[in-house]
Amino acid sequence: MADQQPDPATDLLQAWLAQAGEIPADAVPRANRDRPLPASHAQQGMWLAQQVAGDDDRSLTAPHAYRLNGWLDVDALATALGVIVARHEVLRTGFTVRQDELFQVVADPMPFRLIPEEVADRRGLESAIRAFTRLPFDLEHDPLLRVRLYRLAPQEHVLVAVFHHIANDGWSMDVFHRELTALYGAVISHSSVTDPEILAGIAELPELSVQYPDFAVWQRSLADDEAVHEPALAHWREVLAGAPDLLRLPTDRPRPTTRSSTGDRIEFALPSAVSAAVSDLATAGGTTPFVVQFAAFQALLAAWSGQHDLVTGVTTANRSLPETEELIGFFVNVLPIRGVLTPDQTFDGFLARTGQSLIDAYKQDELPFELLLERLELPRSAGHNPLVQVTVASHQELTAPLALTGLKVEHLPPQGLDVQEDLTFYLTTGSQDVLGHFAFRADLFDRGTMEELSQAYLRLLELVVGNSELTVAQLTERAGLPERKRFGGAAQQAGHDGEATPSPERPRGVVEELVASVWGEALNCGPLTRDANFFNVGGTSLAASRVANRLSDELGIRIPVRAVFQNSGLAPLAAHLTRLIREAAGSHSAVTGAGREGHA
After folding, report:
1. pLDDT-based confidence at 512, cuts 50/70/90?
2. Which of 20, 414, 560, 574 is 20 to 30 A from 145 via CA?
3. What is the pTM of this model?
Protein backbone atom coordinates (compact mmCIF):
# COMPACT_ATOMS: atom_id res chain seq x y z
CA MET A 1 0.00 0.00 0.00
CA ALA A 2 2.98 2.30 0.39
CA ASP A 3 3.02 3.18 -3.28
CA GLN A 4 -0.62 4.33 -3.00
CA GLN A 5 0.06 7.04 -0.43
CA PRO A 6 0.28 10.75 -1.32
CA ASP A 7 3.75 12.14 -1.88
CA PRO A 8 4.94 13.99 1.27
CA ALA A 9 6.48 16.59 -1.01
CA THR A 10 3.03 17.65 -2.17
CA ASP A 11 0.82 16.66 0.78
CA LEU A 12 1.37 18.61 3.98
CA LEU A 13 -0.87 16.30 6.00
CA GLN A 14 1.28 13.31 5.10
CA ALA A 15 4.39 15.26 6.08
CA TRP A 16 2.88 16.09 9.46
CA LEU A 17 1.78 12.50 10.03
CA ALA A 18 5.31 11.32 9.29
CA GLN A 19 6.54 13.52 12.12
CA ALA A 20 3.71 12.58 14.48
CA GLY A 21 4.84 8.98 14.99
CA GLU A 22 3.10 5.68 14.44
CA ILE A 23 -0.68 5.56 14.67
CA PRO A 24 -1.81 2.60 16.78
CA ALA A 25 -3.40 -0.28 14.88
CA ASP A 26 -6.81 -1.67 15.86
CA ALA A 27 -8.00 1.80 16.88
CA VAL A 28 -11.40 1.05 15.34
CA PRO A 29 -13.22 -1.85 17.06
CA ARG A 30 -15.95 -3.95 15.49
CA ALA A 31 -19.35 -2.46 16.24
CA ASN A 32 -22.18 -4.35 17.90
CA ARG A 33 -24.44 -5.25 14.98
CA ASP A 34 -27.37 -5.94 17.31
CA ARG A 35 -27.72 -2.19 17.82
CA PRO A 36 -28.63 0.56 15.33
CA LEU A 37 -25.63 1.77 13.33
CA PRO A 38 -25.38 5.58 13.18
CA ALA A 39 -24.15 7.22 9.99
CA SER A 40 -20.78 8.93 10.02
CA HIS A 41 -20.66 12.71 10.21
CA ALA A 42 -19.54 12.90 6.58
CA GLN A 43 -22.42 10.66 5.50
CA GLN A 44 -24.86 12.79 7.46
CA GLY A 45 -23.61 15.89 5.65
CA MET A 46 -23.90 14.16 2.28
CA TRP A 47 -27.40 12.85 3.09
CA LEU A 48 -28.49 16.32 4.14
CA ALA A 49 -27.01 17.86 0.98
CA GLN A 50 -29.18 15.56 -1.13
CA GLN A 51 -32.31 16.39 0.89
CA VAL A 52 -31.69 20.10 0.39
CA ALA A 53 -30.66 19.89 -3.26
CA GLY A 54 -33.41 17.51 -4.36
CA ASP A 55 -33.39 14.59 -6.78
CA ASP A 56 -32.23 16.64 -9.77
CA ASP A 57 -28.84 17.43 -8.19
CA ARG A 58 -26.09 15.18 -9.59
CA SER A 59 -23.12 16.77 -7.82
CA LEU A 60 -23.39 14.04 -5.17
CA THR A 61 -22.81 11.17 -7.59
CA ALA A 62 -19.60 9.97 -9.22
CA PRO A 63 -20.04 8.38 -12.68
CA HIS A 64 -17.11 6.52 -14.25
CA ALA A 65 -17.11 5.06 -17.77
CA TYR A 66 -14.58 2.61 -19.21
CA ARG A 67 -14.21 1.50 -22.83
CA LEU A 68 -13.30 -2.21 -22.98
CA ASN A 69 -11.79 -3.48 -26.23
CA GLY A 70 -11.18 -7.23 -26.65
CA TRP A 71 -12.94 -10.44 -25.64
CA LEU A 72 -14.87 -9.67 -22.46
CA ASP A 73 -16.08 -12.41 -20.09
CA VAL A 74 -19.31 -10.77 -18.92
CA ASP A 75 -20.04 -13.41 -16.27
CA ALA A 76 -16.53 -13.05 -14.84
CA LEU A 77 -16.94 -9.27 -14.68
CA ALA A 78 -20.30 -9.64 -12.91
CA THR A 79 -18.79 -12.08 -10.42
CA ALA A 80 -15.86 -9.75 -9.70
CA LEU A 81 -18.21 -6.81 -9.12
CA GLY A 82 -20.37 -8.97 -6.86
CA VAL A 83 -17.35 -9.85 -4.72
CA ILE A 84 -16.55 -6.13 -4.29
CA VAL A 85 -20.11 -5.40 -3.19
CA ALA A 86 -19.98 -8.36 -0.80
CA ARG A 87 -16.61 -7.21 0.60
CA HIS A 88 -17.68 -3.62 1.27
CA GLU A 89 -20.80 -3.19 3.39
CA VAL A 90 -21.04 0.49 2.54
CA LEU A 91 -22.07 -0.37 -1.05
CA ARG A 92 -25.19 -2.19 0.21
CA THR A 93 -26.18 0.31 2.87
CA GLY A 94 -29.41 2.28 3.10
CA PHE A 95 -30.18 5.24 5.36
CA THR A 96 -33.13 5.95 7.60
CA VAL A 97 -33.97 8.72 10.07
CA ARG A 98 -35.12 7.83 13.58
CA GLN A 99 -35.77 10.53 16.16
CA ASP A 100 -33.59 13.11 14.42
CA GLU A 101 -30.70 10.66 13.95
CA LEU A 102 -29.48 9.16 10.69
CA PHE A 103 -28.78 5.43 10.76
CA GLN A 104 -27.23 2.92 8.35
CA VAL A 105 -29.04 -0.28 7.43
CA VAL A 106 -26.75 -2.89 5.82
CA ALA A 107 -28.42 -5.33 3.42
CA ASP A 108 -27.24 -8.88 2.80
CA PRO A 109 -25.19 -9.55 -0.35
CA MET A 110 -27.25 -10.42 -3.41
CA PRO A 111 -26.27 -12.10 -6.70
CA PHE A 112 -24.82 -9.47 -9.04
CA ARG A 113 -26.28 -9.54 -12.54
CA LEU A 114 -24.79 -7.81 -15.58
CA ILE A 115 -26.71 -8.06 -18.86
CA PRO A 116 -25.15 -6.16 -21.78
CA GLU A 117 -27.38 -3.56 -23.41
CA GLU A 118 -26.98 -3.39 -27.16
CA VAL A 119 -26.40 0.08 -28.63
CA ALA A 120 -26.21 0.77 -32.35
CA ASP A 121 -23.78 3.67 -32.53
CA ARG A 122 -21.86 6.33 -30.61
CA ARG A 123 -24.85 8.68 -30.47
CA GLY A 124 -27.02 5.96 -28.96
CA LEU A 125 -24.26 5.14 -26.49
CA GLU A 126 -23.93 8.74 -25.33
CA SER A 127 -27.68 9.04 -24.92
CA ALA A 128 -27.88 5.80 -22.93
CA ILE A 129 -24.99 6.77 -20.64
CA ARG A 130 -26.46 10.22 -20.07
CA ALA A 131 -29.84 8.75 -19.09
CA PHE A 132 -28.27 6.13 -16.82
CA THR A 133 -25.96 8.52 -14.98
CA ARG A 134 -28.79 11.02 -14.41
CA LEU A 135 -31.02 8.56 -12.57
CA PRO A 136 -31.73 9.79 -9.02
CA PHE A 137 -30.66 7.82 -5.94
CA ASP A 138 -33.12 6.85 -3.22
CA LEU A 139 -30.71 6.69 -0.28
CA GLU A 140 -33.07 4.56 1.77
CA HIS A 141 -33.60 1.76 -0.75
CA ASP A 142 -31.20 1.98 -3.72
CA PRO A 143 -27.76 0.31 -3.90
CA LEU A 144 -25.00 2.91 -3.72
CA LEU A 145 -23.16 1.45 -6.72
CA ARG A 146 -24.96 1.08 -10.04
CA VAL A 147 -23.36 -0.66 -13.00
CA ARG A 148 -24.46 -0.87 -16.62
CA LEU A 149 -22.67 -2.58 -19.52
CA TYR A 150 -23.19 -1.44 -23.13
CA ARG A 151 -22.18 -3.49 -26.19
CA LEU A 152 -21.32 -1.72 -29.42
CA ALA A 153 -19.64 -4.73 -31.07
CA PRO A 154 -18.60 -8.26 -30.06
CA GLN A 155 -15.22 -6.94 -28.90
CA GLU A 156 -16.21 -3.42 -27.86
CA HIS A 157 -18.07 -2.67 -24.62
CA VAL A 158 -18.45 0.33 -22.32
CA LEU A 159 -18.76 -0.26 -18.58
CA VAL A 160 -20.41 2.51 -16.56
CA ALA A 161 -20.21 2.56 -12.76
CA VAL A 162 -22.07 5.24 -10.81
CA PHE A 163 -21.31 5.67 -7.10
CA HIS A 164 -23.14 7.93 -4.71
CA HIS A 165 -20.59 10.05 -2.85
CA ILE A 166 -22.12 8.99 0.47
CA ALA A 167 -20.25 5.71 -0.14
CA ASN A 168 -17.34 6.86 -2.25
CA ASP A 169 -14.38 9.26 -2.55
CA GLY A 170 -11.25 9.58 -4.67
CA TRP A 171 -9.26 7.11 -2.54
CA SER A 172 -12.15 4.63 -2.86
CA MET A 173 -11.81 4.68 -6.64
CA ASP A 174 -8.21 3.60 -6.25
CA VAL A 175 -9.39 0.67 -4.09
CA PHE A 176 -12.15 -0.14 -6.59
CA HIS A 177 -9.74 -0.20 -9.54
CA ARG A 178 -7.23 -2.42 -7.77
CA GLU A 179 -9.83 -4.86 -6.52
CA LEU A 180 -11.71 -5.15 -9.82
CA THR A 181 -8.41 -5.67 -11.66
CA ALA A 182 -7.32 -8.45 -9.28
CA LEU A 183 -10.73 -10.14 -8.99
CA TYR A 184 -11.46 -10.25 -12.73
CA GLY A 185 -8.11 -11.96 -13.27
CA ALA A 186 -8.81 -14.40 -10.42
CA VAL A 187 -12.24 -15.33 -11.80
CA ILE A 188 -10.86 -15.79 -15.32
CA SER A 189 -8.20 -18.21 -14.04
CA HIS A 190 -10.51 -20.02 -11.55
CA SER A 191 -13.86 -20.06 -13.35
CA SER A 192 -15.30 -22.80 -11.13
CA VAL A 193 -14.84 -20.80 -7.89
CA THR A 194 -17.81 -18.62 -6.84
CA ASP A 195 -17.33 -18.06 -3.11
CA PRO A 196 -16.49 -14.34 -2.55
CA GLU A 197 -14.05 -14.97 0.30
CA ILE A 198 -12.17 -17.65 -1.63
CA LEU A 199 -11.99 -15.43 -4.71
CA ALA A 200 -10.71 -12.53 -2.59
CA GLY A 201 -8.00 -14.85 -1.27
CA ILE A 202 -7.04 -16.00 -4.78
CA ALA A 203 -6.87 -12.34 -5.84
CA GLU A 204 -4.61 -11.70 -2.82
CA LEU A 205 -6.85 -8.94 -1.52
CA PRO A 206 -6.18 -7.93 2.09
CA GLU A 207 -8.67 -9.07 4.71
CA LEU A 208 -10.87 -6.21 5.92
CA SER A 209 -10.62 -6.09 9.70
CA VAL A 210 -13.45 -3.56 9.96
CA GLN A 211 -16.18 -2.14 7.73
CA TYR A 212 -17.31 1.44 7.15
CA PRO A 213 -20.17 1.17 9.68
CA ASP A 214 -17.58 0.21 12.32
CA PHE A 215 -15.68 3.40 11.55
CA ALA A 216 -18.89 5.43 11.78
CA VAL A 217 -19.79 3.99 15.19
CA TRP A 218 -16.24 4.63 16.45
CA GLN A 219 -16.32 8.19 15.12
CA ARG A 220 -19.67 8.83 16.82
CA SER A 221 -18.31 7.49 20.11
CA LEU A 222 -15.54 10.10 19.94
CA ALA A 223 -18.10 12.84 19.33
CA ASP A 224 -19.99 11.76 22.47
CA ASP A 225 -16.82 12.23 24.52
CA GLU A 226 -16.58 16.00 24.95
CA ALA A 227 -12.95 15.79 26.11
CA VAL A 228 -11.85 14.23 22.79
CA HIS A 229 -12.93 17.02 20.45
CA GLU A 230 -12.94 19.99 22.82
CA PRO A 231 -9.30 20.99 22.06
CA ALA A 232 -10.07 21.01 18.31
CA LEU A 233 -13.31 22.93 18.85
CA ALA A 234 -11.45 25.46 20.99
CA HIS A 235 -8.91 25.86 18.17
CA TRP A 236 -11.60 26.51 15.56
CA ARG A 237 -13.58 28.85 17.83
CA GLU A 238 -10.48 31.00 18.15
CA VAL A 239 -9.44 30.79 14.49
CA LEU A 240 -12.92 31.42 13.06
CA ALA A 241 -14.09 34.07 15.53
CA GLY A 242 -15.54 36.89 13.44
CA ALA A 243 -14.79 35.13 10.13
CA PRO A 244 -17.19 35.88 7.24
CA ASP A 245 -19.64 33.09 6.46
CA LEU A 246 -19.59 33.85 2.72
CA LEU A 247 -16.75 34.50 0.29
CA ARG A 248 -18.35 37.07 -2.00
CA LEU A 249 -16.59 36.41 -5.27
CA PRO A 250 -17.51 38.77 -8.14
CA THR A 251 -19.92 36.63 -10.15
CA ASP A 252 -21.02 36.95 -13.77
CA ARG A 253 -24.65 36.48 -12.73
CA PRO A 254 -26.60 37.18 -9.55
CA ARG A 255 -26.42 34.43 -6.94
CA PRO A 256 -29.74 32.53 -7.04
CA THR A 257 -31.63 31.79 -3.85
CA THR A 258 -31.07 28.05 -4.34
CA ARG A 259 -27.77 26.43 -5.26
CA SER A 260 -27.39 24.82 -8.68
CA SER A 261 -25.07 21.87 -9.28
CA THR A 262 -24.57 22.46 -13.01
CA GLY A 263 -20.88 23.09 -13.52
CA ASP A 264 -18.00 23.38 -15.93
CA ARG A 265 -14.23 23.07 -15.73
CA ILE A 266 -11.12 24.53 -17.28
CA GLU A 267 -7.70 22.92 -17.14
CA PHE A 268 -4.20 24.36 -17.12
CA ALA A 269 -0.65 23.20 -16.46
CA LEU A 270 2.06 24.79 -14.38
CA PRO A 271 5.13 25.26 -16.60
CA SER A 272 7.94 22.98 -15.48
CA ALA A 273 10.23 25.96 -14.75
CA VAL A 274 7.57 27.50 -12.48
CA SER A 275 6.97 24.18 -10.71
CA ALA A 276 10.70 23.85 -10.06
CA ALA A 277 10.89 27.43 -8.77
CA VAL A 278 7.88 26.81 -6.50
CA SER A 279 9.69 23.80 -5.02
CA ASP A 280 12.83 25.90 -4.45
CA LEU A 281 10.81 28.64 -2.73
CA ALA A 282 9.10 26.03 -0.56
CA THR A 283 12.42 24.49 0.42
CA ALA A 284 13.87 27.90 1.30
CA GLY A 285 10.81 28.63 3.43
CA GLY A 286 10.87 25.24 5.16
CA THR A 287 7.49 24.24 3.75
CA THR A 288 6.00 22.30 0.81
CA PRO A 289 5.06 23.28 -2.76
CA PHE A 290 1.38 22.85 -1.91
CA VAL A 291 1.62 25.57 0.74
CA VAL A 292 3.11 27.98 -1.82
CA GLN A 293 0.41 27.13 -4.35
CA PHE A 294 -2.36 27.42 -1.75
CA ALA A 295 -1.07 30.74 -0.35
CA ALA A 296 -0.93 32.19 -3.88
CA PHE A 297 -4.49 31.02 -4.53
CA GLN A 298 -5.78 32.61 -1.31
CA ALA A 299 -4.03 35.86 -2.21
CA LEU A 300 -5.62 35.74 -5.65
CA LEU A 301 -9.11 35.19 -4.16
CA ALA A 302 -8.62 38.07 -1.74
CA ALA A 303 -7.56 40.47 -4.50
CA TRP A 304 -10.33 39.33 -6.85
CA SER A 305 -13.11 39.57 -4.27
CA GLY A 306 -11.75 42.62 -2.45
CA GLN A 307 -12.35 40.60 0.73
CA HIS A 308 -9.11 40.37 2.67
CA ASP A 309 -10.54 38.15 5.37
CA LEU A 310 -11.66 34.88 3.83
CA VAL A 311 -12.08 31.16 4.52
CA THR A 312 -10.97 28.56 1.98
CA GLY A 313 -11.53 24.83 2.47
CA VAL A 314 -8.77 22.26 2.07
CA THR A 315 -9.91 18.68 1.58
CA THR A 316 -8.07 15.80 3.23
CA ALA A 317 -8.30 12.06 2.60
CA ASN A 318 -8.81 11.46 6.36
CA ARG A 319 -7.35 7.96 6.04
CA SER A 320 -4.72 8.11 8.79
CA LEU A 321 -6.06 4.99 10.52
CA PRO A 322 -4.59 1.75 9.11
CA GLU A 323 -8.01 0.08 9.15
CA THR A 324 -9.41 2.59 6.67
CA GLU A 325 -6.75 2.26 3.97
CA GLU A 326 -8.41 -0.63 2.13
CA LEU A 327 -12.03 0.44 2.60
CA ILE A 328 -14.41 1.88 0.05
CA GLY A 329 -16.38 4.69 1.69
CA PHE A 330 -16.72 8.43 2.16
CA PHE A 331 -13.96 9.60 4.52
CA VAL A 332 -13.04 13.02 3.07
CA ASN A 333 -12.83 15.87 5.57
CA VAL A 334 -12.72 19.63 4.99
CA LEU A 335 -10.42 21.99 6.91
CA PRO A 336 -11.54 25.67 6.86
CA ILE A 337 -8.34 27.71 6.45
CA ARG A 338 -8.74 31.38 7.29
CA GLY A 339 -6.58 33.86 5.44
CA VAL A 340 -6.24 37.42 6.68
CA LEU A 341 -4.16 39.70 4.45
CA THR A 342 -2.94 43.21 5.18
CA PRO A 343 -1.86 45.67 2.44
CA ASP A 344 1.76 45.84 3.55
CA GLN A 345 2.23 42.10 4.15
CA THR A 346 4.97 40.48 2.06
CA PHE A 347 4.28 37.19 0.35
CA ASP A 348 7.08 35.62 2.40
CA GLY A 349 5.26 36.64 5.57
CA PHE A 350 1.89 35.43 4.30
CA LEU A 351 3.48 32.15 3.18
CA ALA A 352 4.92 31.47 6.64
CA ARG A 353 1.60 32.29 8.26
CA THR A 354 -0.32 30.10 5.80
CA GLY A 355 2.01 27.16 6.39
CA GLN A 356 1.51 27.38 10.14
CA SER A 357 -2.26 27.69 9.70
CA LEU A 358 -2.31 24.53 7.60
CA ILE A 359 -0.21 22.55 10.09
CA ASP A 360 -2.40 23.72 12.99
CA ALA A 361 -5.50 22.76 10.99
CA TYR A 362 -4.22 19.32 10.03
CA LYS A 363 -3.69 18.55 13.72
CA GLN A 364 -7.48 18.89 14.10
CA ASP A 365 -8.28 16.61 11.15
CA GLU A 366 -10.07 14.02 13.30
CA LEU A 367 -12.80 16.57 14.01
CA PRO A 368 -15.36 16.05 11.20
CA PHE A 369 -16.35 19.20 9.33
CA GLU A 370 -20.06 18.44 9.81
CA LEU A 371 -19.55 18.18 13.57
CA LEU A 372 -17.68 21.50 13.51
CA LEU A 373 -20.60 23.20 11.74
CA GLU A 374 -23.01 21.69 14.25
CA ARG A 375 -21.05 22.62 17.37
CA LEU A 376 -20.29 26.17 16.19
CA GLU A 377 -23.96 26.58 15.20
CA LEU A 378 -23.00 28.10 11.86
CA PRO A 379 -25.89 29.32 9.69
CA ARG A 380 -27.22 27.27 6.78
CA SER A 381 -28.52 28.55 3.48
CA ALA A 382 -30.03 26.93 0.41
CA GLY A 383 -28.07 29.39 -1.76
CA HIS A 384 -24.56 28.37 -0.69
CA ASN A 385 -22.64 25.90 1.44
CA PRO A 386 -21.97 26.91 5.06
CA LEU A 387 -18.62 28.56 5.91
CA VAL A 388 -16.74 27.13 2.89
CA GLN A 389 -17.77 27.88 -0.70
CA VAL A 390 -14.31 27.52 -2.32
CA THR A 391 -12.13 24.45 -1.78
CA VAL A 392 -8.67 23.30 -2.78
CA ALA A 393 -7.75 19.64 -3.29
CA SER A 394 -4.24 18.32 -3.89
CA HIS A 395 -3.60 14.73 -4.88
CA GLN A 396 -1.67 12.44 -7.15
CA GLU A 397 -3.11 10.85 -10.23
CA LEU A 398 -4.62 7.44 -9.56
CA THR A 399 -1.69 5.01 -9.36
CA ALA A 400 -3.87 1.96 -10.04
CA PRO A 401 -5.80 2.40 -13.31
CA LEU A 402 -8.35 -0.25 -14.16
CA ALA A 403 -6.63 -3.08 -16.07
CA LEU A 404 -8.67 -6.16 -16.98
CA THR A 405 -7.04 -9.37 -18.23
CA GLY A 406 -7.07 -9.60 -22.02
CA LEU A 407 -8.68 -6.20 -22.50
CA LYS A 408 -7.55 -2.71 -23.46
CA VAL A 409 -9.22 -0.37 -20.95
CA GLU A 410 -9.73 3.36 -21.52
CA HIS A 411 -11.17 5.57 -18.77
CA LEU A 412 -13.59 7.86 -20.62
CA PRO A 413 -14.10 11.52 -19.65
CA PRO A 414 -17.41 12.26 -17.92
CA GLN A 415 -20.39 13.70 -19.80
CA GLY A 416 -21.06 17.13 -18.34
CA LEU A 417 -20.04 18.17 -14.85
CA ASP A 418 -21.90 18.64 -11.58
CA VAL A 419 -20.28 20.56 -8.74
CA GLN A 420 -20.87 21.00 -5.00
CA GLU A 421 -18.95 24.22 -4.38
CA ASP A 422 -18.91 27.66 -6.01
CA LEU A 423 -15.32 26.99 -7.06
CA THR A 424 -12.93 24.08 -6.49
CA PHE A 425 -9.25 24.24 -7.37
CA TYR A 426 -7.74 20.79 -8.05
CA LEU A 427 -3.98 20.33 -8.11
CA THR A 428 -2.93 16.98 -9.55
CA THR A 429 0.71 15.91 -9.35
CA GLY A 430 1.67 13.46 -12.06
CA SER A 431 5.00 11.81 -12.79
CA GLN A 432 6.52 15.11 -13.95
CA ASP A 433 3.97 17.89 -14.33
CA VAL A 434 1.63 19.69 -11.97
CA LEU A 435 -1.79 20.07 -13.52
CA GLY A 436 -4.57 22.28 -12.26
CA HIS A 437 -8.20 22.71 -13.02
CA PHE A 438 -11.03 24.88 -11.80
CA ALA A 439 -14.43 23.26 -11.37
CA PHE A 440 -17.06 25.96 -10.98
CA ARG A 441 -20.78 26.67 -10.83
CA ALA A 442 -21.98 27.54 -14.33
CA ASP A 443 -24.91 29.54 -12.93
CA LEU A 444 -22.45 31.96 -11.31
CA PHE A 445 -19.40 32.14 -13.59
CA ASP A 446 -18.71 32.27 -17.30
CA ARG A 447 -16.05 29.98 -18.70
CA GLY A 448 -14.12 33.01 -19.97
CA THR A 449 -13.93 34.46 -16.47
CA MET A 450 -12.44 31.24 -15.12
CA GLU A 451 -9.92 31.12 -17.95
CA GLU A 452 -8.84 34.66 -17.07
CA LEU A 453 -8.58 33.66 -13.40
CA SER A 454 -6.39 30.66 -14.23
CA GLN A 455 -4.07 32.83 -16.30
CA ALA A 456 -3.88 35.37 -13.46
CA TYR A 457 -2.99 32.54 -11.08
CA LEU A 458 -0.16 31.34 -13.33
CA ARG A 459 1.18 34.90 -13.66
CA LEU A 460 0.98 35.33 -9.88
CA LEU A 461 3.00 32.15 -9.27
CA GLU A 462 5.62 33.30 -11.78
CA LEU A 463 5.90 36.63 -9.96
CA VAL A 464 5.91 35.09 -6.49
CA VAL A 465 8.84 32.73 -7.05
CA GLY A 466 11.10 35.60 -8.07
CA ASN A 467 9.70 38.43 -5.94
CA SER A 468 8.40 36.87 -2.72
CA GLU A 469 9.72 39.85 -0.74
CA LEU A 470 7.14 42.12 -2.41
CA THR A 471 3.79 42.73 -0.78
CA VAL A 472 0.79 40.60 -1.71
CA ALA A 473 -0.95 43.73 -3.02
CA GLN A 474 1.95 44.54 -5.36
CA LEU A 475 2.09 40.98 -6.68
CA THR A 476 -1.63 40.57 -7.30
CA GLU A 477 -1.81 43.98 -8.99
CA ARG A 478 0.91 42.94 -11.43
CA ALA A 479 -0.72 39.55 -12.05
CA GLY A 480 -3.94 41.12 -13.30
CA LEU A 481 -7.41 39.81 -12.57
CA PRO A 482 -10.70 39.27 -14.42
CA GLU A 483 -12.93 42.32 -14.53
CA ARG A 484 -14.94 42.52 -11.33
CA LYS A 485 -18.68 42.09 -11.60
CA ARG A 486 -20.80 42.65 -8.53
CA PHE A 487 -24.35 41.45 -8.08
CA GLY A 488 -26.42 41.54 -4.91
CA GLY A 489 -29.77 39.88 -4.46
CA ALA A 490 -32.25 41.03 -1.84
CA ALA A 491 -30.92 38.53 0.66
CA GLN A 492 -27.31 39.64 0.16
CA GLN A 493 -28.22 43.32 0.37
CA ALA A 494 -29.69 42.63 3.80
CA GLY A 495 -26.11 42.06 4.94
CA HIS A 496 -26.47 38.35 5.71
CA ASP A 497 -27.30 35.73 3.09
CA GLY A 498 -30.71 34.27 3.75
CA GLU A 499 -31.61 36.78 6.49
CA ALA A 500 -34.82 38.61 5.67
CA THR A 501 -35.83 42.11 6.67
CA PRO A 502 -38.13 41.94 9.73
CA SER A 503 -41.77 42.02 8.73
CA PRO A 504 -44.52 43.70 10.74
CA GLU A 505 -46.70 41.51 12.93
CA ARG A 506 -50.18 40.70 11.66
CA PRO A 507 -52.73 37.98 12.47
CA ARG A 508 -51.45 34.54 11.51
CA GLY A 509 -53.22 32.37 8.99
CA VAL A 510 -54.01 28.69 9.48
CA VAL A 511 -50.84 27.47 7.73
CA GLU A 512 -48.64 29.88 9.68
CA GLU A 513 -50.16 28.66 12.94
CA LEU A 514 -49.50 25.08 11.87
CA VAL A 515 -45.85 25.83 11.05
CA ALA A 516 -45.38 27.58 14.41
CA SER A 517 -46.96 24.63 16.21
CA VAL A 518 -44.79 22.04 14.42
CA TRP A 519 -41.65 24.10 15.04
CA GLY A 520 -42.47 24.56 18.69
CA GLU A 521 -42.99 20.83 19.17
CA ALA A 522 -39.89 19.82 17.20
CA LEU A 523 -37.56 22.37 18.81
CA ASN A 524 -39.17 22.63 22.24
CA CYS A 525 -38.91 26.42 21.99
CA GLY A 526 -41.01 29.26 23.33
CA PRO A 527 -43.50 31.50 21.47
CA LEU A 528 -42.44 32.29 17.91
CA THR A 529 -42.78 35.61 16.10
CA ARG A 530 -43.36 35.86 12.37
CA ASP A 531 -39.71 36.82 11.91
CA ALA A 532 -38.43 33.65 13.62
CA ASN A 533 -35.80 31.73 11.66
CA PHE A 534 -35.75 27.94 12.02
CA PHE A 535 -31.98 27.70 12.46
CA ASN A 536 -31.79 30.65 14.84
CA VAL A 537 -34.26 29.16 17.32
CA GLY A 538 -32.50 25.82 17.75
CA GLY A 539 -33.25 24.06 14.46
CA THR A 540 -30.79 21.43 13.26
CA SER A 541 -30.29 19.71 9.94
CA LEU A 542 -32.03 16.49 10.94
CA ALA A 543 -34.75 18.36 12.83
CA ALA A 544 -35.54 20.02 9.49
CA SER A 545 -36.21 16.55 8.09
CA ARG A 546 -38.59 15.77 10.95
CA VAL A 547 -40.41 19.10 10.48
CA ALA A 548 -40.81 18.47 6.73
CA ASN A 549 -42.20 14.98 7.37
CA ARG A 550 -44.64 16.25 10.02
CA LEU A 551 -45.87 19.07 7.76
CA SER A 552 -46.31 16.55 4.94
CA ASP A 553 -48.52 14.41 7.20
CA GLU A 554 -50.55 17.38 8.42
CA LEU A 555 -51.11 18.94 4.97
CA GLY A 556 -51.47 15.75 2.96
CA ILE A 557 -48.89 16.82 0.34
CA ARG A 558 -45.19 16.07 0.07
CA ILE A 559 -43.05 18.82 1.63
CA PRO A 560 -39.36 18.33 0.69
CA VAL A 561 -36.70 19.00 3.32
CA ARG A 562 -35.15 21.64 1.09
CA ALA A 563 -38.30 23.76 1.56
CA VAL A 564 -37.29 24.36 5.18
CA PHE A 565 -33.81 25.49 4.08
CA GLN A 566 -34.96 27.66 1.22
CA ASN A 567 -37.66 29.27 3.41
CA SER A 568 -36.16 29.10 6.88
CA GLY A 569 -38.23 32.03 8.18
CA LEU A 570 -41.61 31.18 9.71
CA ALA A 571 -43.63 33.55 7.51
CA PRO A 572 -41.79 32.70 4.23
CA LEU A 573 -42.19 28.97 4.90
CA ALA A 574 -45.91 29.40 5.57
CA ALA A 575 -46.29 31.38 2.32
CA HIS A 576 -44.38 28.70 0.42
CA LEU A 577 -46.58 25.94 1.85
CA THR A 578 -49.71 27.91 0.96
CA ARG A 579 -48.54 28.04 -2.68
CA LEU A 580 -47.89 24.29 -2.67
CA ILE A 581 -51.39 23.65 -1.27
CA ARG A 582 -52.96 25.80 -3.99
CA GLU A 583 -50.92 24.07 -6.71
CA ALA A 584 -51.91 20.66 -5.37
CA ALA A 585 -55.57 21.71 -5.25
CA GLY A 586 -55.34 23.05 -8.83
CA SER A 587 -53.82 19.80 -10.06
CA HIS A 588 -56.53 17.82 -8.28
CA SER A 589 -59.25 19.96 -9.87
CA ALA A 590 -57.73 19.53 -13.31
CA VAL A 591 -57.57 15.75 -12.88
CA THR A 592 -61.11 15.38 -11.54
CA GLY A 593 -62.40 17.78 -14.22
CA ALA A 594 -60.75 15.73 -16.95
CA GLY A 595 -62.26 12.61 -15.42
CA ARG A 596 -65.76 14.06 -15.49
CA GLU A 597 -65.32 15.17 -19.10
CA GLY A 598 -64.13 11.71 -20.11
CA HIS A 599 -67.04 10.07 -18.30
CA ALA A 600 -69.56 12.33 -20.04
Report:
1. confident
2. 560
3. 0.81
